[in-house]
Design brief:
Keywords: Coiled coil. By secondary structure, this protein is mainly alpha-helical. The chain is built from two helices and no strands. The protein is elongated, with a radius of gyration of 14 Å. The protein starts with a helix and ends with a helix.
């Protein structure tokens, strides 16, 4: 997988997690633990996206 393909896949996954988080927030049955886990996954992916974008620019 090329770096650009990997970056595109990460961006798609980040967007899916954003949707998942919005759905979880909208449902009162979601636990704080579940919300924290989704946020953690989003942050990890965002960090990886930032790293890959920096590599592509250099």
């Amino acid at each position: 997988m090329s770096t650009q393909s990997h970056l595109d896949a990460l961006k798609a996954k980040h967007k899916a997690l954003e949707t998942q988080l919005a759905d979880a927030v909208a449902h009162a049955s979601s636990s704080d633990q579940e919300l924290a886990e989704i946020k953690h996954q989003k942050l990890k992916i965002k960090d990886e996206i930032t790293e890959l974008e920096a590599k592509l620019k250099s």
